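Exercise: predict the fold of this chain.
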Amino acid sequence: MRALTQRTRRSGADPLLTWYRPETGARTELSVRTVANWVDKTANLLATLGVEGRVAGPVSRSHPGHWMSLVWPLAAWQHGCGYLAGDPDAESELVVIGPEAPQAVPGRTTIACSLHPLGLGLRELPAGVLDFSGEALAEPDAHGAEPVEPSAAAWLDENRTLSHSATGDATAQPGRVLVRPSSAWETLSAAVLSPLLGGGSAVVVEGPVAAGALAAIGAAERVTVGMA
């Protein structure tokens, strides 16, 4: 997470991630500093919960482009954990789910993300399920990165296992890129990792959108990469 720390110091007020859901009219813009703040608070939450093993995130598979989903792998790495973009395995200690019919995962700490555009929390969750927003926002703002073994698994999904050192191999992107979410890893790389490394930013457009509306978003956001 050195790239996020360096970028925050250099240009923390610049936009890093602008998220759209055209079918609902939602738009959320997060600066580099805002993303770093959510990452730090989430990493502190992992520390508070005593998580030392792997974090499993089915939310990354079901909602790969939402900004909350994109925060979680970064926070896991910041805390020195690996991140599994899918259902928990034997090494998973905590599971991150979306808001749809949330249920506690037996034997695992379970956290539900509201996926609200502004990060508002969830109410009336079942026993054993924590609300991500409420828990994370109560945490301190600063979290120093935990040391990691470069060869240890940082990202796992059904197609790949990447070490902590390999997560820095994304292609640096200096422009403002339009991202239409696909798989969890491709979306994280295009929307966060590549812009962080290259000094750029991303506009992530989730959900159905007509070609004309997508072009209008690209023009309004001054997208320089990814528009026909």
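Check your answer against the key: The chain is about 35% helix and 20% strand.
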